[in-house]
Specification:
By secondary structure, this protein is α+β, with helices and mostly antiparallel strands. The chain has 13 helices and 15 strands. Strands 3-2-1-15-14-13-12-11-10 form a nine-stranded antiparallel beta sheet, sandwiched between helices. It has a two-stranded antiparallel ribbon with strand order 4-9. Strand 7 (about 245) and strand 8 form a beta hairpin. It starts with a helix and ends with a helix.
Length: about 375
């Protein structure tokens, strides 16, 4: 869930450039070739398994390498479910944008308007932070996953059923340190923002974010293999087993893991196809009115290069081939995933690997991320 932006996308730009994407050479590898090669390289780098898809219009091709279950040796299945980590954030942002479109809130409302007292400690003041600043990651709030106790609990996976009320996560974040910037002043990725966004959804609707996402997104889009578990730490049906390198010594199965520690910031379970369907619907205005679609795609810079920005739960970046793409990645115990898409959603790449141990960058992250970039450019 802790976003490793440089490992998944940013640090692979040089790799994509060296690969010569966008070549006019008729013998240049196809998007499928590039992604399949990246999947295989990811397994060579140490991932148990990697799956992915390339979608152009209505045409979809799938790649896979390695295994989805080390105990049985079953091949990694491109139709299998996996934990999507921070790719959950776009779902959460979509619900808040829909609520704004229904005139039930404004993204310019303060956090304190909907959650009085939730952000009121150690110099932080919810009356000075807007919902928009939560969604575009400019609130200035610390990331609760930087709390050493939460990190240890997540990494050791000692109690997958432990309950973590959202306010407990927020309180852990506020206790980390005093503000280092004013709200809206600078971009800084924090899972705390989206835990609070989930709390706002519940304050406005009376339903938890999982229920609203189910009714507003999952059911209308027919995402039959997508779920938002709120307490159940297990996976069901066909799924990739998730693994971590424990203490850097051995791979262990962490498929059953805590979902409350990520919540509205990273708890959703999905598949390549379902995630691609959601991303296309989101980018093409199927889920949002025009005004909210424009807000979704209004970005703030994430660095000084001018080639990357963050909208509301999604990134926008210029690729080495000159194209611009929307994207996000997700890292949660046992799983790493990434999606990229053209602005009109006609070209898409989604990729997932079944190992994450809360550290990076790794060769697997770099090589699979580079392959995803190359595939979108091809």
């Amino acid at each position: 869930m802790k976003l490793l932006r440089l490992t998944a996308v940013g640090a692979t730009l040089a790799l994509a450039t060296l690969a010569g994407v966008g070549s006019a050479n008729a013998d240049a590898p196809t998007a499928y070739d590039l992604l399949q090669a990246g999947a295989q390289q990811g397994v060579t780098d140490g991932y148990p398994g990697v799956i992915g898809l390339v979608r152009h219009g209505d045409s979809t091709q799938y790649v896979h390498a390695g295994v989805g279950d080390r105990s049985t040796g079953a091949p990694a299945d491109p139709t299998a479910q996996f934990r999507i980590g921070s790719n959950t954030k776009a779902f959460t942002a979509t619900v808040l944008l829909q609520l704004e479109g229904e005139h039930r809130l404004s993204l310019d409302d303060t956090v304190a308007k909907w959650l009085p007292g939730a952000v009121d400690a150690n110099g932080y003041d919810g009356s000075t932070i807007t919902l928009r600043e939560l969604l575009n990651q400019t609130s200035g709030l610390p990331d609760y996953i930087d709390d050493l106790g939460l990190q240890l609990a997540d990494y050791t996976n000692a109690d997958p059923s432990r309950l973590y009320p959202p306010q407990t996560l927020v309180d852990a974040a506020l206790a980390l340190h005093k503000p280092t910037s004013a709200p809206g002043q600078k971009w800084g990725y924090s899972n705390t923002n989206y835990v609070l966004a989930g709390m706002v959804i519940e304050a406005v609707t009376g339903n938890d974010p999982a229920t609203e996402i189910q009714h507003r997104i999952i059911e209308p889009l027919g995402l039959t293999h997508t779920t938002f578990p709120t307490t159940d730490p297990t996976l069901h049906g066909t799924y990739l087993h998730g693994y971590e390198w424990f203490a850097g010594l051995a791979l262990r199965d962490v498929t059953t893991s805590n979902v409350q520690i990520s919540g509205a910031a990273g708890a959703i379970v999905s598949t390549l196809d379902d995630l691609a369907t959601f991303d296309r619907a989101l980018l093409t205005g199927t889920l949002l009115p025009p005004a909210q679609e424009a807000e979704l795609k209004t970005t703030v810079p994430t660095d000084s290069t001018g080639t990357a920005g963050y909208g509301l739960g999604i990134y926008h970046q210029q690729l080495p081939c000159g194209q611009w793409a929307w994207d996000h990645d997700g890292d949660v115990l046992g799983y790493h995933s990434i999606w990229l898409a053209s602005d009109d959603g006609s070209k898409q790449v989604v990729l997932a690997a079944n190992e994450f141990h809360m550290m990076g960058p790794t060769n697997g992250q770099n090589d699979t991320g580079g392959a995803a970039l190359n595939a979108l450019c091809a």
